[in-house]
Structures are given as structure tokens and as C-alpha cells.
Write a structure and sequence with these properties.
By secondary structure, the protein is of the alpha+beta class. 23% of the residues lie in helices and 31% in strands.
Length: 449
């Protein structure tokens, strides 16, 4: 029995050693595996739920700078070449509430305004003189000189200086609208610096009124002509003396002296009284030592001689008549725009003083334009209203063979004395313009747009 117990003890000890050995192996293996897990890279895992939501929120939004796709982009990835677009949603900014803009003035709308000063009627000034006189003043060309002249009577006779046409082989004339005419001298003085040139195409046209006496010193005047071939150039001044006399190639007696400056090419143009708009004289000379002073021949002193030439004109043999080629009547965009501008300038004077009807000269007699033009002035005229033109804009010009159309927008300003309010009225009109038998632009019709 003692022997069997010893064996059992030996077997038990062996089993115990084996168990301890196995446990040691397991422990060593566990430590090795743990160490491996600590140093080895973790397996790829899905992004957290929050990252997925954030990426989904950016997907498909357009911004400047780059493009975010609806998938994860690995870090440190080089951007593709070329232009890319930022698609991030902009951070909302604080909303800015803007004040509503002032309502613009539209065509044919009357708006009450509050200017610092009431509207003042325009005074009779240089613009009125030019607008009214331009259809009566002409630029003269000869083979020797360039000068000026103006319509003297209804026979189509143009008054100018003798020195402008003396010795010339031919005379051509051009009006303010660019129409050219041939003329011939029917009278010229050897002693006084005056001459008459007849233009048959101008027969029937009404001249401006002419003075029958010398003006008073201090009278405001305008000299109109074509100095240096610049048509309808005007200079303002006042009469400083009368009765001046000079002797040169011609005898200049009882001349009107004024501060309206004259230049070469002004010779033969009219000197006009700005108050009553009568022609006072024929601009004729300047003195070299006094270039700021001009001298005009009083027209009332030469009317007798002029009328004698009208009754007994110089006759020419057919072979002595030289008729250069002249340009036919034509439309010009700049001239048409200037024509409509001048028309509006005259309208204002008639609205404030109904007896001033200068604008009639811009309307084709017997046409729809004449009827409508007069109607518009009558409808606007009110003794309680004082008018002025704030602005005229030429919007469009279409040139045709027989007629042209001009679209213009005009802003009238007027003060109503009855209510003490000031108004702005905008009007857009399409004008149809033709050229009449005298070569002048005329309004055939006008339609409010």
C-alpha cells in the first residue's frame, strides 16, 4: 500500500508540473499577442456618424474656390489641376434692409418737387437770338472770300458786304441746315461796303424785322455770322457809340460801335437788338488796334440803295453766269439734333409769353406738325405757371431719303403761383422732319410716345 501511495504522489507531482508548464505557455502567448496588438496598425473602420452627417450637408453646394464631392476625400490628397469650385454653403450674414429708391420720373409724368428756389422764366438771351435768327443767316463762299449774309426781303435777296463778293466769279450760300444754293450779285456799291445777292430758291421766305433808326448807347446786341466758317456763331455785347466814321477801300459813315466781337468771316452778318429782335446793321469791320470792338453799318441808312437794286437788278449774259455744283438738301444727325434742341428753346418763351411765336418757324405750314405744335403750347399755357426747360435729350435719330425721325425727351419745370408748388413734367416725342423748298428743316408731325 505504501508503494501505491508513493506512485500516486509521483504522478500527481508530474501532472502538476505539466499544468504549470501549460499555464506558463498560455501566459507567454497572451503577453506576445497583447504586445503585437499594441504596436500593429488598427484595421480600417467606418467614419463616425457625425462625420457622415457633416459630409452629407456639404455635398452638392456651389461656392467659389473648390468642389466637395459626396464622398470622403483622404487627407493630404493633391488637388486636381485646373479651375475648381467651392461648394460650401455661405455663412448667413445679417440681413441688411435698404431704403426704397426714389421712384424715377417716367415719360409724360408730372411730379411735384421742392426746389430751393421757384422756377424762373428764361430771359431773352443768346440762345433765343440764335434759334430765331439761324434760318435767316447764311454763310457765303466765293472763289476769293468767305463771309456772312442775311435775308433782306421776300424776293430771296441776301444782304452782305461788298468786300465779300467783289470781283468774285461765283457766289454760293449755305444755310444753318447745310443746304447749299447758287446766287448772283444784283447790286454792289463802289463806295459803301454793301451788296445784294439774289437766291431764287429763297423767294417767298419772310425776313426778320429791321430797325428804322440808330440804337441807343447801352442797347444789348448780338452779332451772328460765320467767323472762320463756323456757322451761326454769335457774340453778345452792347452798343458803345454811334456816328463813328472811317475811310478805307470804302467809306464807312455813322457806324454803330459795339462790344460784340467780330472776326474774319463775320463780315456781312446781322447785328441784332436783343430786346425787340430787329436787325440794326451789317457787321463790317474791326480795327487792328481795338479787336474787342466791332462796327456795323446802320441798315436804315442804306435801305434806299438796296431797294433800288431790287427794282433794277444787274443783268448778266448767260455766258457770264457761273453756277458751281452745289450739294442737294440732306439730313445730318447732328444738325437734326440741334434743330430739335432749338425748337424746345423757343417753346419755353411762348409758354411764358404767348405773343412770342418764334417756334412757328420750325413747323411745316399746313401740316399735322403745325396743328399739334400749336395745340401743345395752348394746352400748357397758364398765366399762373412759369416755365423753363431743365433738359432735352436726343434719344434716337433715323435718317431717311425724304424724311427723318427724331425721338427726344424733354423735362419741363414749372412753378404754379396759385398753389406755390413746383412741378417737373417729362415728355417723350417722336418728330418727323422734312426739308422745305427753302432748304430748311421743318417738323411735319409729332407724336407723344
Amino acid at each position: 500500500m505504501n508503494s501505491r501511495r508513493a506512485n500516486r504522489n509521483t504522478v500527481g507531482q508530474n501532472k502538476k508540473r505539466i499544468l504549470i508548464f501549460l499555464l506558463s505557455l498560455i501566459l507567454i502567448a497572451a503577453v506576445g499577442i497583447g504586445s503585437y496588438l499594441l504596436i500593429a496598425p488598427p484595421p480600417e473602420t467606418a467614419p463616425p456618424a457625425t462625420a457622415s452627417v457633416k459630409q452629407e450637408a456639404f455635398a452638392g453646394k456651389s461656392y467659389s474656390g473648390f468642389q466637395v464631392e459626396p464622398k470622403e476625400v483622404p487627407e493630404e490628397t493633391a488637388p486636381a489641376e485646373g479651375t475648381v469650385e467651392d461648394t460650401r454653403e455661405e455663412t448667413p450674414e445679417e440681413e441688411v434692409v435698404e431704403e426704397p429708391a426714389e421712384k424715377p420720373v417716367t415719360e409724360n409724368e408730372v411730379v411735384v418737387i421742392t426746389p430751393e428756389e421757384p422756377v424762373e422764366a428764361p430771359e431773352k438771351d443768346l440762345s433765343l437770338m440764335i434759334a430765331n435768327a439761324k434760318t435767316h443767316v447764311y454763310t457765303l463762299y466765293t472763289d476769293l472770300e468767305q463771309g456772312s449774309g442775311f435775308l433782306f426781303n421776300e424776293q430771296g435777296d441776301i444782304l452782305t458786304n461788298a468786300h465779300v463778293v467783289k470781283g468774285a466769279s461765283y457766289v454760293t450760300l449755305k444755310n444753318s441746315d447745310g443746304q447749299e444754293f447758287n446766287g448772283h450779285v444784283i447790286g454792289i456799291s463802289e463806295t459803301e461796303d454793301i451788296a445784294l445777292v439774289r437766291v431764287k430758291e429763297l423767294a417767298g421766305k419772310q425776313p426778320m424785322p429791321m430797325a428804322s433808326a440808330d440804337p441807343q448807347v447801352g442797347t444789348n446786341v448780338v452779332a451772328i455770322g460765320s467767323p472762320e466758317d463756323q456757322a451761326n456763331t454769335a457774340t453778345e455785347g452792347e452798343v458803345t457809340a454811334t456816328g463813328a466814321s472811317f475811310s478805307d477801300t470804302f467809306e464807312y459813315v455813322n457806324m454803330i460801335e459795339s462790344t460784340a466781337i467780330l472776326k474774319k468771316g463775320s463780315s456781312g452778318g446781322p447785328l441784332i437788338d436783343t430786346e425787340n429782335e430787329q436787325i440794326l446793321g451789317i457787321n463790317s469791320i474791326i480795327l487792328e488796334d481795338s479787336p474787342g470792338i466791332g462796327y456795323a453799318i446802320p441798315i436804315h441808312t442804306v435801305v434806299g440803295q438796296l431797294n433800288e437794286w431790287v427794282s433794277n437788278p444787274i443783268e448778266y449774259e448767260e455766258e457770264d453766269v457761273v453756277l458751281p455744283d452745289v450739294k442737294d438738301a440732306y439730313f445730318d444727325e447732328e444738325l437734326l439734333g440741334s434743330f430739335i434742341q432749338s425748337y424746345y428753346e423757343l417753346i419755353v418763351y411762348s409758354l411764358n409769353e404767348p405773343e412770342l411765336t418764334y417756334y412757328h418757324a420750325y413747323l411745316l405750314p399746313g401740316s399735322e406738325g403745325e396743328t399739334e405744335g400749336v395745340k401743345r403750347v395752348i394746352e400748357r399755357t397758364d398765366a399762373n405757371k412759369v416755365y423753363n426747360i431743365n433738359e432735352v435729350q436726343i434719344m434716337n435719330v433715323e435718317i431717311g431719303e425724304e424724311e427723318s425721325t427724331i425721338e427726344a425727351t424733354a423735362e419741363y419745370m414749372y412753378h404754379d403761383k396759385a398753389t406755390n408748388e413746383t412741378f417737373s413734367e417729362t415728355e417723350t416725342t417722336v418728330f418727323t422732319v422734312v426739308i422745305d423748298e427753302y432748304g430748311d428743316y421743318q417738323i411735319k408731325s409729332m407724336v407723344t410716345k
